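[job 0417] fold request received: 5'-nucleotidase
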Amino acid sequence: MRFSLKTTVCTLAVSLALFSGTAGAWEKDKTYDLTILHTNDHHGHFWQNDYGEYGLGAQKTLVDSIRQEVAAKGGSLLLLSGGDINTGVPESDLQDAEPDFRGMTMIGYDAMAIGNHEFDNPLSVLRQQEKWASFPLLSANIYQKSTQQRLFKPYALFDKQGIKIAVIGLTTDDTAKIGNPEYFTNIEFRVPAQEAKQVVEQLRQNEKPDVIIAATHMGHYDDGKHGSNAPGDVEMARSLPAGYLDMIVGGHSQDPVCMASENHKQVDYIPGTPCAPDRQNGTWIVQAHEWGKYVGRADFQFRNGELKLVHYQLIPVNLKKKVEKADGTSERVYYTQAIAEDPAMMKLLTLFQDKGQAQLAVKIGSVNGKLEGDRSKVRFVQTNLARVLLAAQMERANADFAVMNGGGVRDSIEAGDITYKSVLKVQPFGNSLVYVDMKGREVEQYLAVVANMQVDSGAYAQFTNVSLVADGKGVRDVKIKGEPLQADKTYRLATLSFNAQGGDGYPKISTLPGYVNTGFIDAEVLKQYIEKHSPLDAAAFEPKGEIVYN
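[job 0417] inference complete; emitting structure tokens
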């Protein structure tokens, strides 16, 4: 398959002949313009960053201008989200993402998929967020165990100039594994592709839509190679009968889905350059990276029951690049053009931003070098920031060693002053510190599992006071605090409630006799550690090759 968009558009079309005689509302031989806008993995970024990039203020201006353009040409528009509105920016986290949902309402979102991070809080918070949103939060595959009924609307229907459009919501079934287990005692996540098939067949029989779009939070994995993750958009598109889904608006893997060749995304997509979406089994698959950095735009034409993609692009929202000047200094310039921030939106958001910053701006300590917490590091190698987090947990629990999943480290801390905001960006989930006393033989069994968690996944384990060799199946040469592990000696492990209850596939230790939930929140534990030990020496926490993989 070629990925010249011009060639793709000319040669590929979605056949909806099955519906042409049943919709009845659109006119034969008339061409309709339909534009789908999309974002995903917002993660609390309602406010622009320190460089003036993204934010809902600029996003509203951009979406409004596209709406006006589409309307002037007689077309229709839908704005969809691939989910994960929660978790990532302290000002948002402390306010349960109220500014984000209210901002999305002002922009005029039509629907969103429920993401796994919508469950970082109790269900009551998500129900409140549904009230702040004027648009439906969709998921067809989330059920209440006790009633076997869906917890959310499975789909929403839209009529655009007589074209009947169904939008189905789907959530990764990894949520039960990667979310906080204490919130899932009565919630079941079923296989999305199976639920999608059932819903599409029900829609075809009862509603007879002309276009079916899945708004998903499942991830895009090249050629369906999803590793330890649950199957994503590519796998679902391939598993369904051709023609069941016209388009998938995705999220979760936080990629710009711009294909370099068949089944291979561009590795380092440059903002503002052409973007060819993926296509699998007749289904277009799109994803707009993360944080509102882009608004994805797919322009379709609908004629006589056939949907054709005319143009696709990822529009950067005030993204900038660093350029070197002739005098040796540098500056940040826009990849494309500047987008003004909408005044009404900024009036709304400023109230929330000021409230959040007042709670977060107080200095709590300092560090003399960078503490590494980037996603591209903490899911692959041991890092000094993970060691700081684990040292804090170990000290508070009076433990011998500590373990946590790399996916629980959400940001880095730069050299200089550290504020509470810095801490909450690193640990936004609000997990509790726990500990458990185990015999050495139990410790070895535990480490044999966690040390062999797959690299490039949130489950990848970070350690402190542990050295070992992992071979993919087990561990050997295990030492705790520099001393060989003794089978009959009792050791205390410190970790977080998320991991202790089986999150990310870790062994469930919350039922063991020696288990204690301290009730202390992870970010507060880290905050007090930094206050006590500042100024921190970044080099003192650098890994020294204690964890070896064969």
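[job 0417] notes: Residues 1-23 have pLDDT under 50 and may be disordered. The domain at 363-549 is CATH 3.90.780.10 (5'-nucleotidase;  domain 2).
[job 0417] exit 0
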